[in-house]
Design a protein that fits this description.
With 188 residues, this protein is α+β, with helices and mostly antiparallel strands. The chain has one domain: Chalcone isomerase. The chain has a 7-stranded antiparallel sheet. The chain has a two-stranded antiparallel sheet with strand order 1-2. A hairpin with a 3-residue loop joins strand 7 and strand 8. The chain is globular. The N and C termini lie far apart (30 Å).
Length: 188
């Protein structure tokens, strides 16, 4: 994730640069990743979107949320975001872009930025076409990640998790079309 503004995270699991475009993928039921089924009981699929950059497909994204989810208060609800990569990307680039996007939403000290960059680099590996990174937001706890169903190091920091998942879900996201696609099936 170095396309429009470079890569956005595993979440950030993304890469976005000028010319990047989100396309809503067909709204067909998506299966909740096995790795989060027990962590997010009753999860509801709310939508999907594909990131394209200058005609190249980068990844498909899918969102599941806990019952009672309200988009305006996304950070108060459990949720799972899955990115299925359609091309190879550097984990380091994804982590750096994710942190840059997180800084858009809040001031971070130099020490905090260094800690979070290190945590992102641990959690988000290099990816290749066909790889799938799933991120789970647990309110007031932090974030957990999986690569192809295998656990990655968690980030036990609620503020980190809020800002990280805000890359896609905050009303101030730099990619409002992506947000719309991920929330397209919400009825409220």
């Amino acid at each position: 994730m170095i396309l429009r503004r470079s890569f956005i995270g595993a979440g950030a699991l993304a890469c976005v640069a000028p010319g990047a475009a989100w396309a809503q993928t067909p709204l067909v039921p998506a299966a909740l990743p096995v790795e989060v089924a027990a962590e997010l009981p009753g999860a509801l699929w709310t939508g999907s979107a594909r990131l394209r950059f200058f005609g190249f497909d980068v990844y498909d994204s899918r969102l599941w949320v806990a019952p009672g989810f309200k988009a305006a208060q996304f950070e108060q609800h459990g949720l799972a975001l899955e990115l299925s990569y359609l091309r190879a990307l550097s984990g380091r680039d994804i982590a750096e872009r994710s942190l840059k996007e997180m800084k858009r939403a809040g001031d971070l000290s130099a020490a905090q930025s260094q800690r979070w960059l290190a945590a992102l680099q641990d959690a988000i590996p290099d990816v290749k076409a066909g790889d799938r990174i799933t991120g789970l937001h647990t309110p007031n706890v932090g974030a957990r990640f999986w690569l192809n169903g295998q656990p990655r190091p968690p980030v036990r920091d609620a503020e980190f998790s809020r800002l990280f998942f805000g890359i896609w879900l905050s009303s101030a996201t730099s990619e409002p079309q992506l947000r719309s696609g991920l929330l397209s099936r919400l009825t409220s």
